[in-house]
Backbone:
């Protein structure tokens, strides 16, 4: 989750005093990078995925599952045995927000050949196996997006009681600070977000109203004034960064051949974010309750919302500079490519001085406003030893602001003095239960980038419509019920997309005629006379490519999963989890998930992940090439 500096973290008050310094030098660092590599061409297409994992422990006797707070130790061993022993080790491991989390990526990025699609799943399996081999008896590594009883009493191993007093990080009634990763970055972020905001973060997720759910559903917090004020009726109330950043996701980063290709991909993929997020929906439960949403996005957004009351528009501006319409974790606010310019219809708050400075340095309007928008934010953490840097050769201040703007897409300049090219990161996906599904989503997105580039596709619609799609995408069953704005004619761009955009032709058209509301089924699978469908487009691309039989077979299986999830023939993880809970013998149709129900669910998830049981309603009749058993948990228990 971003930049990891070592040293003594400063308090919010101290960090704030250095905010202008960090921004000023962050911009200088960006300028150094930009001038050094703006003309770089012909970097090859490389890409890599990131999977976030949770460590769980099953208590079979008491039918309870807990999150194990051993992420730091497991990570240390993984790194020691892996990258530190062998620089070509096939996996890489990084810390994540929760002390019960770790993040794994392939050791080296994948390259541009088709056969690499056939190695993704093996690599994910290897990651699962490597980390699982370090776990204790009855522990497992899970790829679940949100732990259903996160924040319920005793949800961690060892157990800790939250200590909701000033002086700690979260001040949460539910999420103990011990569940936060011990690297000081994470608790400092947590505390400084809260201090900057001036109060605890507030997350209210609508509860799913089942037959016996009290109506109105009201929780009272007599001992906590902040909670009493902030919690809403008919909502599940949460009060800590951990409820958001303690969730897991699946991300993909691409290296483009040049800055302009990166900007083009950034824009095109931004329109795809809500669609793929809805398709990957996997997080219906929060704090022990069944919610009415299927995706984590809004929860994380609220969990790191550091805006003050002034910035949120609740009070007149006095001490702050701007009204800010979104949290730091949210969808993107401006397109970056020339073709995107006319669809930039969201009001963009920017740091005007920085914008002017960037223009003076020869940066174009679109990139300048993008950076000047990221830089309206304050740095959230700063380490005493890292205040004065060499702007020509370091980029920590730039990364400080950049890596705490958690948007659906991230545009990533190369690190200083490296041979890495311009990259974009695709961030909206929820992590799936199995390596097969995670590979399928990753391969789908990577193939889509190939098709976008080869066919010069154009998915752009006004950004405000993408934002509307983001809202729809998170709702329960959005994949089947939601209607999404999507561009009707995606082949319009012709050959001019990357560099010229055919502005003259476009400007004569009314944007409103270019898009219409479609279901995800139509967008993914196509509909006669309405839209060709992304999968048919991918298939025709694949037909024109040389692909070995084995790879083609894997890709077809991946695309089949996506196709069937879109049509409703297969369930999303969120839908499957809902059905599992509602069919559980203990479920009282009151939206409550007990320890025992949670245990059965996570145990089942673990069995599915290790191919110890079938789950045709989720995965279909999957053709599998490799069998392995990496679980430390005997599911027959
Ligand atoms: N876990 C976060 C999510 O679910 C992402 C953190 C990161 O950027 O690595 O979106
Ligand atoms: Mg991460």
Residues:
């Amino acid at each position: 989750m971003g930049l990891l500096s070592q040293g003594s973290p400063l308090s919010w008050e101290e960090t704030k005093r250095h905010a202008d310094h960090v921004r000023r030098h962050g911009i200088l660092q960006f300028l150094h990078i930009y001038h050094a590599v703006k003309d770089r061409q012909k970097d090859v297409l490389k890409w890599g995925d990131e999977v976030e994992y949770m460590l769980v422990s099953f208590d079979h006797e008491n039918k309870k599952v807990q999150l194990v707070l051993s992420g730091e130790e497991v990570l240390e061993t993984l790194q020691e045995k892996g990258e530190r022993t062998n620089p070509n080790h096939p996996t890489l491991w990084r810390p994540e927000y929760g002390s019960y989390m770790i993040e794994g990526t392939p050791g080296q990025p994948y390259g541009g050949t088709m056969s690499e699609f056939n190695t993704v799943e093996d690599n994910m399996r290897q990651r699962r196996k490597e980390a699982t081999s370090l776990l204790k008896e009855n522990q497992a590594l899970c790829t679940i997006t949100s732990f259903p009883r996160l924040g319920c009493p005793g949800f961690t191993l060892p157990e800790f009681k939250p200590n909701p007093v000033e002086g700690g990080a979260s001040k949460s009634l539910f999420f103990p600070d011990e569940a936060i990763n011990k690297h000081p970055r994470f608790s400092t972020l947590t505390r400084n977000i809260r201090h900057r905001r001036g109060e605890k973060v507030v997350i209210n997720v609508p509860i799913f109203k089942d037959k016996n759910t009290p109506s109105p559903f009201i929780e009272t917090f007599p001992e906590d004034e902040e909670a009493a004020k902030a919690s809403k009726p008919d909502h599940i109330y949460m009060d800590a960064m951990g409820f958001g950043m303690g969730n897991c996701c699946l991300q993909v980063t691409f290296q483009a051949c040049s800055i302009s290709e990166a900007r083009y991909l950034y824009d095109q993929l931004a329109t795809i974010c809500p669609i793929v997020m809805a398709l990957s929906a996997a997080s219906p439960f929060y704090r022990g309750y069944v919610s009415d949403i299927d995706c984590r996005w809004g929860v994380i957004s609220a969990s790191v919302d550091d805006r003050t009351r002034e910035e949120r528009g609740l009070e007149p501006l006095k001490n702050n500079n701007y009204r800010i319409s979104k949290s730091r974790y949210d969808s993107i606010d401006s397109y970056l490519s020339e073709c995107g310019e006319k669809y930039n219809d969201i009001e963009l708050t920017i740091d005007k001085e920085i914008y002017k400075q960037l223009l003076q340095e020869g940066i174009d309007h679109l990139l300048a406003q993008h950076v000047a928008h990221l830089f309206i934010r304050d740095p959230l953490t700063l380490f005493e030893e890292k205040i004065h840097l060499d702007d020509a050769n370091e980029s920590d201040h730039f990364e400080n602001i950049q890596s705490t703007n958690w948007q659906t897409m991230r545009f990533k300049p190369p690190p200083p003095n490296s041979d890495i090219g311009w990259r974009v990161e695709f961030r909206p996906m929820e992590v799936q239960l199995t390596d097969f599904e995670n590979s399928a989503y990753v391969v789908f997105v990577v193939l889509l980038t190939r098709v976008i580039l080869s066919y010069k596709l154009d998915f752009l619609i006004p950004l405000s419509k993408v934002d509307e799609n983001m809202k729809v995408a998170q709702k329960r069953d959005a994949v089947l019920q939601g209607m999404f704005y999507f561009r009707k004619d995606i082949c319009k761009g012709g050959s001019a997309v990357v560099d010229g955009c055919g502005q003259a032709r476009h400007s004569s058209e009314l944007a409103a005629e270019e898009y219409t509301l479609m279901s995800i089924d139509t967008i993914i699978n196509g509909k006669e006379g309405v839209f060709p469908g992304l999968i048919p487009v991918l298939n025709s691309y694949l037909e024109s490519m040389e692909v070995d039989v084995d790879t083609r077979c894997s890709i077809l299986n991946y695309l089949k999963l996506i196709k069937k999830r879109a049509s409703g023939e297969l369930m999303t993880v969120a839908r499957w989890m809902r059905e599992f809970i509602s069919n559980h013998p203990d479920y009282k149709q009151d939206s409550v998930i007990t320890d025992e129900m949670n245990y059965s669910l996570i145990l089942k998830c673990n069995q599915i992940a290790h191919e110890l049981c079938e789950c045709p309603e989720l995965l279909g009749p999957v053709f599998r090439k490799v069998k392995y058993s990496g679980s430390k948990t005997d599911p027959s228990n």
